[in-house]
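User
Class, as today's exercise, I want you to study this protein, comparing sequence with structure tokens, and judge whether sequence predicts the tokens.
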Amino acid sequence: MKRFDFVARMAGALSLALGLAVAPASASENAAGAGLTPDAQQALAGAESAVELAKSKRALWTTAIAALAEAQAAAKKQDSDAVVKHAATASEQAFLGLAQIGYPAPAGL
């Protein structure tokens, strides 16, 4: 039951973080220019927030870092579809890393 409560709290926190990240304020968004769709800009900002949250909780997976780098590279090329795809992966991987915090450590560690 503790695990479920933790995952529910993290999901709420991540939703809040992603919701607050809607306003265009990130450096990579400014570098991407106006060529990205609003959905791509929002997805990128949300992914950056999710990765930063996971990093601050020491729960960041390397797959989230790689996906965010791909999203940022696509933003520089103004490829909105690729930005959305890679940003979604980065957000998902960051969330999974955060959810893993609530799992018990394997026996013997």
Summary: The helical segments are 2-20, 27-32, 38-56, 62-76, 80-100. The CA atoms of residues 40 and 80 lie 5 Å apart. Confidence is low (pLDDT under 50) at residues 20-25. The two ends are 22 Å apart (CA to CA).
